[in-house]
Specification:
It is a single chain. The chain folds into two domains: 153 residues, P-loop containing nucleotide triphosphate hydrolases (Rossmann fold), CATH 3.40.50.300; 129 residues, no CATH class. Helix 1 packs across helix 6. The mean pLDDT is 89. With 293 residues, the chain is an alpha/beta fold. Keywords: ATP-binding, GTP-binding, Nucleotide-binding.
Length: 293
Amino acid sequence: MRLVIVTGMSGAGKTQALKMLEDMGFYCVDNLPIPLIETFAELTLSNQAGIRNAALGIDIRSGEDLSVLNRIFDEWSRNRVPFEILFLDAGDETLIKRYKETRRAHPLAAGGRIDSGIEKERAKLAFLKEVADYIIDTSRLLTKELRQELEKIFVNQESYRNLFITILSFGFKYGIPSDADLVFDVRFLPNPYYSEELRPKTGEEKEVRDYVMQHGTAALFLDKLYDLLEFLIPNYVLEGKNQLVIAIGCTGGKHRSVTIARSVYDRFKSREEFGIKMEHRDIDKDNIRKRMV
């Protein structure tokens, strides 16, 4: 029997997560009144209802009753009730954007600004995030990627760490990514842009990668970068960081940055201590601009 408490920030994907867990065979209940949670847990854990796995959605709509959860969780822990807490989070900018796109009102905004509602909600849910077993930041996750993370935890029984890393290539001429935690400038490497044959290609193609990696400078840089990341990442995991964006930039974001981002991703993609994905923000920007001219 597995009992999962699904909670987190409004707009971070809790409803989607519950639907995905339902597809995975969980009996899901959203926004069950907190005074009924203990009764529900007793019924499911005793197997009287024939439920194998259950997921309970709890969020800010529970209001003042949220404070009761501390007592419930403490009691469950003492009695060794097998429960887990999944906390869905996202950056403030992402949450605001999602609310504006859906034209929904934040439950704590009370007709005011969305950002003030988010601030209040973070304060009220802080204790849940602190005790959560799994924290998934959905700021940069596609729906299918969220499903993959949930399957990793609740279906495949794989070891899971809360840190999710995005390796992001970009072009400096289009601006540094605002959400980058670490930024590396690789404009010192050989530039395929000056080769008419290579200019239309990208760092995802072998000819471009070979050009960037010539003379050994890129390989030496990667060795030093790997050493730095091998030191930093475990410390970020220990700190409890749940989202890390490593941005690698060149001039246009098409050749050198893509090559190095691909190399970093390939180096770390098989690691079990964290989730990882790769994005090329500006790889097609030059082509788009040419079509517009």
